[in-house]
């Protein structure tokens, strides 16, 4: 069978090999003539080398040889293929995925005989090691807290514009009250809130206007909420006294009495009508370059202010200061009309700043971060303000190290204390342990806040996102 295929090959060689070789020669000539134009210099060089190797293979196949020596014929064929393999340049190795930190290889360059191939893909000296990018460093909680605190700053335009705008509105309201109720001894309106105390975060979009109600201490006295039907020590009643010697009308505030008690609800209703129906807010807004709208449906005395650069909510609070107590006209929901809420805000801020000044502590920084967390997490809104501040004040009595370097430890400890207090449903006021600051929360709200903070104890970073 082998002899049959050898004889058939010889007949094909004698009859048609010459014409085939001539045809291949013309094709190679055309390819070489146009290779540089089509393939470029490097491509033409590769094609020329491959063409030369194929021609050698054909020449050896058509040259006279010893027909009786099949080994010589096989050797000649092997040598031709070896020449083809040796003279054909090898393609560059493909870069592996683990080598992607190194530069990719440049396109193939023409090989010049006698010259060593130039190094490709790296401009650094051969002896220098390649610099690999260092892995991302995992930030500690301390570093994340410090980074997060820098993002809490109120925009500068708001920090400067909001107090200025609020003071202008305060002046206009003060003038109107004096003209409308000249007989009522209202004190001078003043601003209050976290923005003025340096504790506001993210946005200056709310501020408080405090309207002092000046009382004659000889005609009024305080009664604790513990001694009333509500049994709540955070509320107080202001009682009119000595009506036998000083009958009704002796005090200008007697018109707001309900059952011998100064009614916070009646005062709020009077001021609400004043804000909604009596004051020409469009004219005042036009004078100040903004739009001012009283909130009609709110129980609070609230104004919405829209400026080109800021939107602001201003809340008006009638306030009574007696016997070292600050009482706000914020009655609880329900039928009770005569209760005044005791506010600890001024004492809270003063105490935190006093403690920080004494040991260069980071209580205010910790408070600002927690205020930002409560503001950005809808489920934690009711924890912002007094509850968080009172937890920090309680911890200050037991944890003495409030240096900035210990911020992460104190932050973690505040979260743990909040969770423990929510679990019991009790957070005693720092200034009056009888007051439970969680008494106004619903059970569903306590459960939701407790779940969020419990998770944050093991992953505090979730609160900083």
From TrEMBL:
Keyword Transmembrane helix belongs to the record: yes
Top-level lineage group: Eukaryota
Keyword terms: Membrane, Mitochondrion, Mitochondrion outer membrane, Transmembrane, Transmembrane helix
GO cellular component, one term: mitochondrial outer membrane
Membrane topology: Single-pass membrane protein
Mab-21-like HhH/H2TH-like domain segment(s): 363-449
Single GO BP term: positive regulation of mitochondrial fission
Keyword Mitochondrion: yes
Gene3D superfamilies linked: 1.10.1410.40, 3.30.460.90
Record InterPro entries: Mab-21_HhH/H2TH-like, MAB21L/cGLR, MID49/MID51, MID51-like_C
Primary site of residence: mitochondrion
Ranges annotated as biased composition (Basic and acidic residues): 62-78
Ranges where the record places region Disordered: 62-127
Subcellular location: Mitochondrion outer membrane
Name of the protein: MID49 protein
Species the sequence originates in: Erithacus rubecula (European robin)
Taxonomic lineage: Eukaryota, Metazoa, Chordata, Craniata, Vertebrata
């Amino acid at each position: 069978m082998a002899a049959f295929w050898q004889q058939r090959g010889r007949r094909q060689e004698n009859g048609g090999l010459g014409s085939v070789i001539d045809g291949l020669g013309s094709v190679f000539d055309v390819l070489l003539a146009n290779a540089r134009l089509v393939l470029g210099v490097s491509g033409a060089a590769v094609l020329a080398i491959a063409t030369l190797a194929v021609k050698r293979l054909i020449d050896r196949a058509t040259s006279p040889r010893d027909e009786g020596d099949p080994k010589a014929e096989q050797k000649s064929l092997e040598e031709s293929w070896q020449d083809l393999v040796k003279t054909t340049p090898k393609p560059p190795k493909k870069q592996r995925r683990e080598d992607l930190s190194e530069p990719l290889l440049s396109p193939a360059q023409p090989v010049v005989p006698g010259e060593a191939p130039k190094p490709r893909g790296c401009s650094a000296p051969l002896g220098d090691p390649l610099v690999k990018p260092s892995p991302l460093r995992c930030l500690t909680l301390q570093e994340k807290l410090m980074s997060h605190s820098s993002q809490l700053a109120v925009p500068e335009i708001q920090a400067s514009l909001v107090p200025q705008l609020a003071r202008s509105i305060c002046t206009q309201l003060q003038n109107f009250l004096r003209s409308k109720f000249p007989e009522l001894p209202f004190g001078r309106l003043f601003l209050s809130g976290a923005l003025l105390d340096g504790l506001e975060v993210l946005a200056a979009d709310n501020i408080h206007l405090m309207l002092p109600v000046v009382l004659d201490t000889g005609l009024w006295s305080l009664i604790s909420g513990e001694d009333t039907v509500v049994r709540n020590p955070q509320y107080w009643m202001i009682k009119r006294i000595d009506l036998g010697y000083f009958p009704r009308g002796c005090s200008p505030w007697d018109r707001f009495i309900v059952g011998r008690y100064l009614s916070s609800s009646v005062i709020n209703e009077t001021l609400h009508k004043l804000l909604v129906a009596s004051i020409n807010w469009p004219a005042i807004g036009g004078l100040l370059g903004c739009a001012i709208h009283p909130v009609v449906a709110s129980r609070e005395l609230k104004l919405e202010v829209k400026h080109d650069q800021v939107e602001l909510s201003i809340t008006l609070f009638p306030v009574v200061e007696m016997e070292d107590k600050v009482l706000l006209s914020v009655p609880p929901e329900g039928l009770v009309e005569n209760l005044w809420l005791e506010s600890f805000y001024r004492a809270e801020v003063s105490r935190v700043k006093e403690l920080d000044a004494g040991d260069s502590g980071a209580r205010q920084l910790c408070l600002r971060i927690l205020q930002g967390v409560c503001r950005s997490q809808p489920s934690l809104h009711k924890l912002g303000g007094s509850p968080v501040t009172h937890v920090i004040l309680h911890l200050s009595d037991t944890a003495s190290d409030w240096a900035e370097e210990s911020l992460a430890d104190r932050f973690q400890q505040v979260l743990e204390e909040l969770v423990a207090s929510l679990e019991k449903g009790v957070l005693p006021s720092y200034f009056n342990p009888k007051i439970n600051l969680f008494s106004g929360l619903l059970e569903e709200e306590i459960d939701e806040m407790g779940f969020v903070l419990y998770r944050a104890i093991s992953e505090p970073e979730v609160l900083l996102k």
